[in-house]
Amino acid sequence: MALTLYDTMARKKRVFEPADPARVTMYVCGPTVYNHTHIGNARSAIAFDLLFRVLRRHYGAGNVVYGRNLTDIDDKIIRASQENNVPIDEITAKFTKIYQDELSELNALTPSIEPTATSHIEPMIHMVSRLIDVGVAYEADGHVLFAVDRFDDYGRLSGADRDEMLAGARVEVAPNKKNAADFVLWKPSKQDEPGWDSPWGRGRPGWHLECSAMIEKQLGQTIDIHCGGQDLRFPHHENEIAQSACAHDGASLARYWMHNGFLRMGSDKMSKSIGNVLLTHELLADWPGEAIRWALLSAHYRQPLEWTDGLLRQSKRQLDRFYRLLEEIEFSDVTGPAPESVVAALEDDLNTPEAFAALHALRDSASQMKGEARTEAIRQLANAGRLMGFFNVDPEDWFKGAVSEGPSAEEIDALLIERAEARAAKDFARSDQIRDDLAALGVIIEDGPEGATWRRS
Ligand code: AMP
Ligand code: ZN
Fold this sequence. Notes:
Number of helices: 16
Shape: globular
Bound molecules: adenosine monophosphate, zinc ion
């Protein structure tokens, strides 16, 4: 069966044909590691984790190379280091570990390579030199800038008018730009900023350069699939395309481009600048990783996904229904190919709503069976879920695990302390209110000689 993917460059679904089926290459633009990431960032990582799983199934696990970078040098990191008086590598090591741990709790597979920017300074300097040599980059006041009007295809991926694009995007400020859209390849570092020696003085790379240089070094001049959030189409991906093509005699950077839609809160994109973010580590404190993963995959990856508490509750409930059936089989020996219905949905541009519908159908039919046929159908169901990154918890542990409906244990404890204080102050209206509110959330308070305890009804 053919695997089809929506290619942003072609603006249509295309049958996916790798350049070499024995070495399929994909790359995802990863995070800047200076603080906690939010669940919108996780959406991008999880959508493309699913792509990685689908490619591994199709071409063989050993034949897919997945790179996801870590930006460990950047103005925001330098600022965080100066403000908190903590060395940069301490900050980046801490948040790299947190990011990797969070994604593994969301059952994301570890990419084949996770290159860091600071370990690719040499290929970056080499690429800048080459871009100057071929006449598409110029030096101005210690900066090296890429001249966008030297690359005819600039803007082809995002398809927008250049002035329109510029108006809506953050483009770095730099002195003596020939064109407002020219972007920074290399910039000077002040004494107290990290820097590397280069033909243009001590400095550091621009953000866009990292991905081009890391892809060249780790994956090759032209990769099969380049992925990222839709906000990265311009300027980041346009700039990557321009750098790589000009450094490689016109060879394209990627044969397919995939972009995920935004995770939203209400009508807004979840973003640090708006301040409406839910941090992944906070959600993981209250919910099983699989429930969050289920919620993240509930909408098709190119569509917007509206994030609500209800979505998480519903995702957990649905998983409970699957785990009830999975309890019936010997869980440790589930291995085998996923059923065709789920594979077909996923191979159609990662159509997760269809894949979930197929999972539900498999569950409904398994639950009507008896005997060995039932056991076999549940095994099939487990294989189907496993392909999507679910059903990795032993069912017994799943049901013993933290109760994710209603308030967390910490929230309840805090309310009980507030209630005790209200009672001590003889504010019985408040203490009764807290008891009633908790009761409405399914939490029962029992007063005893040792103070109040609680249980879920
Ligand atoms: P950033 O930290 O903003 O560079 O984002 C890291 C990755 O997460 C990029 O691929 C972004 O496109 C993606 N991203 C950021 N915010 C969202 C969001 N609200 N929904 C989906 N993806 C997002
Ligand atoms: Zn990138």
